[in-house]
Amino acid sequence: ELLMEAARDAGATAQVDDLTRVLSAARHLEKLIEEHVVREKLAALLAAAPVDETRESDDPAIKETPVGHYQYDGPLGRVLVVDDNRGNREILERMLLVDGHHPAVAHDGQRALEMLAAGGYDLVLLDIVMQGLDGRAVLQRIKADPAIAHIPVIMISALEEMEVVVECIQNGAEGYLSKPFNQTFLRARIGASLERKALRDAERRHLWTIQRTQDRLASELNDASAYVRS
After folding, report:
1. Model confidence over 25-67: pLDDT tens digits?
2. Contacts of 141 (CB under 8 A, 6+ apart)
3. What are the beta bridge partners of residue 79?
4. How many CB atoms are closer than 10 A to CB 36?
5. For residues 53 and 147, what is the distance between their CA atoms, to the nearest angstrom?
6. pTM, 2 dp
7. Furthest CA-CA distance within the chain
8. Rounded to whole angstroms, how far apart are CA atoms 199 and 148?
């Protein structure tokens, strides 16, 4: 897709046609792999795969179904995908739709902040390297805003420098996965993040209820005290 865009910009029509056929063949191959390989082989591959350090051992987000392949069975939510690469956005959006989530996409950091300010999101998948406002700056602004600071953020990037990972975690990121990402581990991370957010939201509602009850009792006690004094 990137080569096609470059060829269009250069006016290379013949190359665009060739690349279009290559892309069509690649998508057909991807469909064949999903239909004839993934369902039969994924269980064995996962069983032999090394454990990802970012995944909780008791995470229920991935489980085996009776038909012998793996499906997402974690909590669902509204997920915002922030990436300036259209291909990456489409891949993540498709995966989220297949799993039953409600995805939304933002092509840059500023647009992501505007969408988050409108409310209603449960999780953010945030690319680190973007033009303009990059992922690290977006993460800092999210965590500095009390209205949206509670939304978990998973950083996604091709970068592998440990200092970037440490910086993101220190600034409040929920986790970090590198591109090209392992979709199984990404699904597990999404499920774990949404589950923790649901628990935190329940705790916040519980604390709000307690505070309301305490305020009501204090008001009633003040009224009773005033009545006794009178």
Report:
1. 888 887 777 666 655 555 555 555 554 444 343 434 333 333 3
2. 113
3. 103, 123
4. 10
5. 31
6. 0.60
7. 95
8. 16
